[in-house]
Amino acid sequence: MSESRRRFSPEFREEAVQEVLTSGRSVAEIARSLGINEGTLGNWAKQHREKHPQAEVPLTVSERARLRELEKEVQQLRAEAAFLGKAAAFFATKSR
Q1: What is the pLDDT of residue 34?
Q2: pLDDT band for position 1 (cuts 50, 70, 90)
Q3: What does the alpha-carbon distance between residue 35 and residue 12 come to, in Å, rounded to a whole number?
């Protein structure tokens, strides 16, 4: 039993990639709305970026600053989560 492979037109692919590049929505969300596999859409977007490296708009100064803030926050939250995991393990063994 072999499954037939779905074929997508170049126009459909390009429209889907443009949706990824311009909408601000995630690849997974767009793939679900289009009824295609997330990995497939991700591959199409990657291929497009490789063919058109300057096609994406560079980040503005404020966007870069916001990105740095978010990266710092993620780092801090990961450290806190690791600490809380260790503390929970410590108290779990302590109460026995």
Answers
A1: 93
A2: low
A3: 12
Closest CA to 17 of 83, 40, 35: 40
For 25-81, what is each residue's pLDDT tens digit?
899 999 999 999 999 999 999 999 889 887 667 788 999 999 999 999 999 999 999
CB distance 40 to 16 below 8 Å = no
Burial class of residue 16 (count of CB atoms within 10 Å of its CB; 0-12, 13-18, 19+): buried
Say how far apart CA 66 and CA 26 lie, in whole Å.
19
Q: Is residue 16 within 8 Å of residue 46, measured between CB atoms?
A: no
CA distance linking residue 27 with residue 23, whole number of Å: 10
The tokens of 18 are what?
A: 């443009």
- Non-local (6+) Cβ contacts of 20 within 8 A are 27, 30, 41, 45
